[in-house]
Write a structure and sequence with these properties.
Elements: E1 42-50, E2 62-65, E3 77-84, E4 93-99, E5 104-105, E6 116-124, E7 135-142, E8 148-150, E9 156-158, E10 161-163, H1 167-171, E11 174-175, E12 179-180, E13 184-185, E14 187-189, E15 192-193, E16 207-208, E17 211-213, E18 218-219, H2 222-227, E19 232-238, E20 241-247, E21 266-270, E22 276-277, E23 302-306, E24 314-316, E25 345-346, E26 350-353, E27 356-357, E28 370-376, E29 383-386, E30 390-396, H3 400-408, H4 412-419, E31 428-438, E32 441-453, H5 461-470, E33 473-476, E34 480-486, H6 506-510, H7 514-521, E35 526-527, E36 531-540, E37 564-573
Parallel strand pairs: 1-19, 2-37, 20-36
Antiparallel strand pairs: 1-6, 1-18, 3-4, 3-7, 5-6, 7-14, 7-17, 8-9, 9-10, 11-22, 12-13, 14-19, 15-16, 15-24, 20-26, 21-25, 21-28, 23-24, 27-35, 28-34, 29-30, 29-33, 31-32, 32-33, 36-37
């Protein structure tokens, strides 16, 4: 990509704004790449690092948001060069690596990147012979966080292991650190499609990861490069996915008058991956997929507009993670437990995690990243719900005994027992309800553990047996009710179900034919890097579970759940025009 126009505002004081020029303004000698390097293999290039912008079309369920300034922090960068071509990027071989220190820069922000940063960089071709059909290809790691280490002789160590292989070898490597907003969120090249999607069929599109460096992009000296017009454009994306929870709920159950505190909602994210591929992995094999239940075609995996003006590259909207085809494994966290409540987030918190995606045969809850909400009822005080009073009727700890006594006296076994007593004044006098505990932790259940009777009355064991057979009591410690939200990637405007969930088995919901499942539902659930998943609680229909819901085995994601009204907003972090010094 050559001779780009940039806004003068992108350059800090002390540097002259570069002029925009046409391709005819500067004519460079077209020589082989080898001749552009000095005897030590050094040369210079101008690099523009780009975040995909908010211009052009977007996904149907996607909006753009700047997010936090710290999410654009740039602490360091490593440029990795390969020898190859875009026709077979996987076979490109490692050439050299260099730390990008921006010793001669075109801007001095010192902090962030989101639209473009521009600077001049020294590169080294090592022993590569850059002739014939192959040339230099650029791969960039921003905020390497010590995972990419460059040696004095331009060698590269990745995650503690020397690297000298192909780009396919690099793409197969995983990391377990996505970075953070203090040290910088790790970023790498964003894979792009050669064809647009949405209303256009992108089938057969090629996917480019690396950026080609042509002969006229290379300069013999730092001064020539700084004064030159040619830039290499590299589009990068964060390796992290962002998750947060907001609430627009009004604090009263939709299906009743019970109130809850929206300000004190807590949440935790679980069943997510702990590591990820260094470079986002995506295939063009499903680019031609458009859900058959839509009124008009929507090829959901590729954007419809170029990533930026004057480019014929298009953003892609999916990923294949290291355990996409199976249940969570050593790449994943385990599910949360009731004891994890101390580690949960306040409503204002943000989590950054690695992506977790699911293939068309694995759309099950055991494979899916989810958010658990803990919602306080009864002013944060313990309470019970019972099968005899109703699941949305709060019974306080002080009232549970009296409520249970009234229930016991409604049972047939009580009537039989009462009639058999020798003294008509004999009666059941009290009922004891006890929360159930396992290893000192409450389970969310409670049982009737004792029935007291008048002195001289006969044993009430039959009543106790029937009472526990016919009742279900839930105990809500600290007034907290728990809800699960499975995180969606494509919504019903892109990957809708046929109509409603007709059954509970996998094939009832998603169908028997794998090709149709791919076409219709691949990507319906999952989280992908560089996407921001905002879980907005819009309302609560019923009091939830008294303990953290278990992750059920072999249960489809789209089971019927009538507890919450939730909207999942997918936001792509938008551009901000500013420069940076590395």
């Amino acid at each position: 990509m050559k001779k780009l126009c940039f806004y003068a505002v992108m350059f800090a004081a002390g540097f002259a704004a570069m002029g925009c020029s046409s391709d005819n303004d500067v004519v460079q000698e077209q020589t082989s790449l080898n001749n552009k390097f000095d005897a030590k293999g050094n040369a210079y290039v101008n690099i523009a690092i780009n975040m995909p912008t908010s211009t052009g079309g977007t996904r149907a369920n996607e909006t753009y948001d700047d997010g936090l300034a710290t999410e654009y922090n740039v602490k360091d960068a490593v440029l990795v060069l390969f020898n190859g071509s875009n026709t077979n990027e996987g076979a490109a071989t490692f050439v050299s690596a260099s730390v990008m220190n921006n010793s001669v820069g075109h801007g001095l922000d010192n902090v962030r990147i989101s639209d473009k940063i521009l600077f001049t960089q020294k590169i080294n071709k090592g022993t590569a012979n850059l002739t014939g059909s192959t040339g230099l290809m650029a791969f960039l790691v921003v905020n390497a966080n010590g995972k990419f280490v460059v040696g004095d002789d331009n060698t590269l160590t990745i995650n503690g292991t020397p690297f000298s292989g192909t780009f396919a070898d690099l793409k197969a490597l995983t990391l377990d650190n996505i970075g953070n907003t203090t040290d910088g969120l790790l970023m790498t090249n964003a894979p792009m499609s050669s064809k647009p999607g949405k209303g256009n069929d992108p089938s057969g599109a090629s996917i480019s990861y690396l950026t080609a460096i042509n002969a006229d992009d290379i300069y013999n000296s730092e001064t020539d490069a700084y004064n030159g017009d040619n830039f290499i454009d590299i589009f990068v994306e964060r390796a992290a996915a962002k998750v947060n929870v907001t609430s627009s709920a009004n604090g009263t159950l939709i299906d009743g008058t019970v109130t809850y505190s929206t300000n004190d909602i807590k949440w935790i994210i679980e069943n997510y991956n702990t590591d990820y591929y260094i470079e986002r992995k995506i295939s063009n094999s499903y680019f031609g997929s458009t859900n058959a239940h839509l009124a008009s075609v929507n090829y959901r995996f590729v954007d419809s507009q170029p990533v930026e003006t004057n480019f014929t590259l298009y953003r892609t909207y999916w990923a294949e993670d290291p355990n996409m085809g199976g249940v969570p494994d050593d790449h994943s966290t385990i599910a949360g437990t009731q004891a994890d409540i101390t580690g949960w987030n306040a409503l204002s918190a943000i989590n950054y995690i690695a992506e977790n995606t699911i293939n068309q045969n694995s759309l099950k809850q055991e494979n899916t990243t989810r958010v658990i909400l803990a919602v306080p009822f009864n002013n944060g005080n313990d309470f019970y719900t019972t099968s005899w009073a109703g699941s949305d009727i709060i019974v306080s700890s002080g009232d549970i005994a009296a409520s249970a006594l009234a229930f016991v006296k409604s049972l047939p076994s009580y009537s039989t027992w009462k009639a058999a007593q020798s003294n008509p004044s004999y009666d059941v006098t009290a009922v004891t309800v006890t929360p159930t505990k396992v290893n000192s932790e409450t389970t969310g259940a409670a049982t009737i553990t004792a029935i007291s009777v008048s002195s001289g009355a006969s044993d009430a064991g039959d009543i106790l047996t029937e009472a526990n057979q016919k009742s279900q009591i839930s105990y809500f410690k600290d007034g907290l009710a728990y809800y699960k939200v499975l995180i969606r990637h494509f919504d019903d405007t892109e990957a809708p179900l046929a109509h409603t969930v007709n059954g509970t088995t996998y094939n009832d919901i998603y169908g028997d034919v794998e090709a149709n499942r791919t076409r219709d539902f691949l990507g319906r659930y999952g989280i992908v890097r560089n996407n921001w998943y905002n879980i907005d609680l819009q309302g609560i229909k019923h009091i939830g579970k008294p303990s953290v819901p278990e992750i059920p085995a072999d249960t489809p994601n789209d089971e019927i759940d009538a507890y919450l009204k939730v909207r999942i907003n997918i936001l792509s972090w938008a551009k901000r025009r500013q420069s940076v010094t590395l």
